[in-house]
Amino acid sequence: MKIELRYFTGTGNSLKVLKTCDILFAESGNSTNIFKISKDETMFPDSDLIGFCFPVYAFGIPRICKKYLQGIERFKKRQKAFILITAGDLDESGFAIKECKRILRKKNCEVIYSEIIEMPISWTTSPKPPFPPSKEDALEIIMKAVIKTQEIAKDIVNGIEKHHRFNYPKRYSKIKFYLDYLVFKYFGIQNMWRLFNVYDTCNGCQLCARICPTNSIRVVDKNPVWSSTCEQCMRCVNFCPTESIYQSQGGDTKGKSKYREPSFKPRGR
Ligand SMILES: Cc1cc2nc3c(=O)[nH]c(=O)nc-3n(C[C@H](O)[C@H](O)[C@H](O)COP(=O)(O)O)c2cc1C
Ligand code: SF4
Ligand code: SF4
Question: From CA 257, how far away is CA 158, in angstroms rounded?
Answer without folding.
Answer: 39
